[in-house]
Design brief:
The complex is a heterodimer. Chain A is of the alpha+beta class. In chain A, the strands form two sheets. In chain A, strands 2-3-5 form a three-stranded antiparallel beta sheet. In chain A, strands 1-4 form a two-stranded antiparallel sheet. The mean pLDDT of chain A is about 90. By secondary structure, chain B is of the alpha+beta class. Chain B has a seven-stranded mixed beta sheet, with helices on both faces. In chain B, strands 1, 2, 3, 4, 5 and 6 form a six-stranded mixed beta sheet that branches. In chain B, a hairpin with a 6-residue loop joins strand 9 and strand 10. The longest helix of chain B is centred in the N-terminal third of the chain and has 16 residues. The N terminus of chain B is likely disordered. Classes of the chains: A alpha+beta, B alpha+beta. At the A-B interface, helix 2 and strand 2 of A face loops of B.
Chain lengths: ~180, ~575
């Protein structure tokens, strides 16, 4: 269905367009004055200046692995994040925790855990699917590297970004 | 007895009338009617103890009139009205009778299933993220379908032994066990090695191995397959890969002449595990551990990936073109009587047809395959450890495969045989050829997946694909034609044997015209009388009987007896 747009009826002096130029110029000059007199600030000087402390709680940056309050790596290598990951950025190789380890009762942990940050689309599905609350999207957004290999976050790097999370999972405590 | 069994009775399942043989289990009747009754302990190849209570259904029979009362009148189809029994019955151990009614839906059965699930899950650990069964676990599936969704159980769960070593290949987790007793019945009834049992009572019941014994028989990994939960897991497959990542390929086992039907699980060109696939004419539901675990060598460091040509004392990498051309020059210069072809009974019928072409084309004087004889175990393993001996007899036309090997050795010794083409066989280690003997040859060509002493002595070494990397057909000990399907891509420059032989025929002046293994099957159907009229698709996943050999499989014979005596459904 076609929509007929009613054109405004312009007065004769409006049809000249010249007054509109002056109205627009007044706005421009107003901004110029307020910037020159340092009343407004329009550009953040990134990367010298950053907005990091204003990032919202739900900000989705680089995914990272966390350890719990007992320094146990939470990830048990169930590979659900590897399965759900839409761009297939995650690769996990599981291994058995040896019998003499303090956390032998958990039985399984990742031997390698790689996230290819070139592939990652920061969707957060890995965090959502994790049954062990082991992977979180942190506020790190400036992921750079000089080669493809450098852009792959390995287990060590992921724990370094992730840090420690307290609470949430009580599954592997002393009652287990 | 057998007469009574063929009697058909009318049974109403979920409101629809069917006819089934009298004496059939209710659960089987439901299955055939397309209604799945959830179950844990029931397995058609094992006796039914009826201990998991998951298969409870509503059952009804025609009302029995009180003395003097009038019997109910049948409706226009001859069916009597059903009066439903207020208590549920288990479908796995009860048999159907005339005019019986079964209801698998409705408030009573749904409530029963919900209750059973709640009790099973009360003490079940939250191990799914680390449990190898996750993804193919009946407890997961049925708790989604029939469970409550949340637990009302606030008390502490019962602790039981975890990560128990019950045998060299099987790991036990007692907390995950739901006491279905399938493994106990399997080891007792099928494997004749009753080492498993329950001890303690109530919610403290645990599955244990008899003190001082272990679950070590050659069929122990079948308990892992039939375990509906993750209580029994395979040491070999432990934590290797989650099941939902793997692609399943139906193929056959090539470790012996039985040709167990198998499913191979692979991801990204790597095989992770092999499980038996049901075929009641070959391997029932089982397979031996020794055959199941014999796949790790496929990823071996010793795999040949490029054609090699010997230069002086050393082999150097050559392209296919050069390697085949070298072989062609050498073979063309010799008379057919100076050449021996040693093929393999591990080759498919299609490849053997190509060997026959090569033999005919070069007028080869000496042809044989290497016999592999082991001990039959009285279950599924055949004494003949070659998967396609019947194919060699039928397609290659050898009457007694393996009988000419000594004559060929003598021929080499006396200098009558100057060249040997060893196809997919390791002459030094498997056929007793010494390296000195092979050194007397003018020309030795060998194809094999792995580097070995024969390859070391060969003038031309060609990488041949292994069983998981090719398609074809094989004929098992009972004369059944079965399909071998390609699971993974062969590494490097490896080619299938039929391609290698085709190239050899071509380079020595023979014809071509074969581009796919399916072309070869068509030629097989045209040339070999037993294959007449067969098509690739006709063989299907379960194969079909091709020739009469008189050989039977002991485990199947016993299964038939057990079915005949009514112990199992089968």
């Amino acid at each position: 269905m076609a929509i007929i747009v009613q054109r405004p009826k312009l007065k004769w002096w409006e049809q000249l367009y010249i007054p509109a130029l002056f109205i627009g110029m007044r706005v421009t000059l107003g901004h110029l004055v307020s910037i020159l007199s340092r009343k407004t600030k329009v550009t953040m000087q990134y990367p010298e200046e950053k907005w990091d402390e204003h990032l919202p709680e739900h900000y989705r940056g680089a995914p990272a692995l966390v350890t719990d309050e007992h320094d146990r790596e939470r990830c048990v290598a169930c590979q659900l994040c590897e399965f759900i990951c839409p761009p297939r950025a995650i690769t996990i190789k599981p291994e058995e925790i040896p019998g003499d380890d303090k956390w032998a009762k958990v039985e399984k942990r990742p031997r390698t855990f790689d996230i290819d940050m070139i592939r990652c689309i920061y969707c957060g599905l890995c965090e959502e699917v994790c049954p062990e609350q082991a992977i979180f999207l942190r506020k790190d957004y400036a992921i750079t590297g000089t080669s493809r290999a450098e852009m792959v976050h390995d287990k060590e790097k992921l724990y370094q970004i992730g840090g420690v999370r307290v609470g949430l999972v009580n599954k592997w405590n002393e009652l287990k | 007895m057998s007469e009574a069994k063929t009697d058909l009775v009318d049974v109403q399942i979920d409101g629809v009338w069917y006819q089934f043989p009298k004496g059939m289990r209710m659960i089987e009747a439901c299955r055939q009617a397309g209604v799945e009754v959830p179950h844990y302990c029931y397995h058609p190849k094992l006796t039914s103890p009826g201990n998991c209570r998951m298969c409870l259904v509503e059952m009804g029979m025609p009302p029995r009139p009180a003395p003097g009362a009038e019997a109910p009148a049948p409706d226009e189809n001859g069916h009597l009205p059903i009066s439903w029994i207020p208590r549920p019955v288990i479908a796995c151990a009860n048999t159907i009778g005339p005019n019986m009614g079964i209801r698998t839906t409705g408030p009573l059965t749904e409530e029963c299933r919900k209750g059973v699930m709640e009790l099973l899950l009360a003490n079940h650990p939250l191990d799914c993220p680390i449990c190898d069964q996750a993804g193919e676990c009946s407890l997961q599936e049925f708790s989604v379908e029939h469970g409550k969704g949340e637990s009302r159980f606030r008390e502490q769960k019962v602790k039981k032994p975890k990560n128990v070593d019950v045998g060299p290949r099987v790991r036990l987790d007692d907390e995950r066990c739901i006491m279905c007793s399938r493994c106990i019945r399997f080891t007792d009834e099928i494997a004749d090695d009753p080492v498993l049992g329950f001890t303690d009572r109530g919610s403290h019941t645990v599955l244990t191995v008899y003190p001082g014994r272990e679950l070590a028989n050659n069929y122990s990994l079948n308990t892992v397959d039939i375990c509906p939960v993750g209580a029994l897991t395979s040491n070999d497959f432990r934590f290797q890969m989650r099941v939902w990542f793997m692609r399943e390929t139906n193929t056959i086992d090539t470790n012996c002449a039985t040709g167990c039907n198998i499913t191979v699980f692979a991801r990204e060109n790597k095989i992770y595990r092999i499980t038996p696939r049901q075929n009641n004419d070959v391997n029932s539901d089982w397979m031996p551990d020794s055959h199941r675990l014999n796949f790790h060598w496929i990823e071996s460091e010793a795999r040949l990936t490029e054609p090699l040509v010997k230069d002086g004392d050393h082999h150097r990498i050559a392209g296919w073109h050069e390697a085949i051309a070298t072989a062609g020059d050498k073979l063309s210069a010799l008379d057919g009587s100076e050449i021996a072809v040693i093929a393999s009974a591990r080759m498919t019928n299609e490849e053997l047809l190509m060997v026959k072409r090569l033999v005919k084309h070069l007028k080869v004087g000496h042809v044989d395959t290497v016999a592999r004889v082991g001990e039959a175990d009285g279950y599924l393993i055949s004494a003949d450890r070659n998967p396609n001996t019947n194919g060699v007899k039928l397609v290659l036309g050898l009457d007694d495969p393996g009988s000419q090997i000594e004559a060929i050795k003598l021929g080499i010794e006396q200098g009558r045989i100057k060249a040997v083409i060893a196809l997919q066989e390791n002459l030094v280690d498997d056929a007793g050829f010494s390296a000195e003997l092979l050194g007397k040859l003018d020309f030795l060509l060998s194809t094999y997946p792995l580097a070995n002493a024969t390859a070391d002595a060969s003038d031309v070494v060609l990488p041949g694909a292994c069983w998981a990397e090719k398609s074809g057909t094989m004929i098992n000990a009972t004369g059944r034609l079965q399909r071998l399907n390609k699971v993974v891509d062969a590494p490097g420059e490896t080619l299938e044997s039929w391609e290698i032989i085709r190239d050899l025929v071509q380079v020595t002046g023979g014809g071509n015209g074969i581009y796919a293994v399916s072309d070869l099957f068509k030629q097989l159907a045209a040339e070999v009388s037993e294959f007449k009229g067969l098509t690739w698709g006709q063989i299907g996943d379960l194969g079909l009987p091709l020739i009469e050999t008189g050989v039977t499989i002991p485990a199947l014979d016993r299964e038939k007896q057990r079915i005949a005596s009514g112990l199992i459904v089968g």
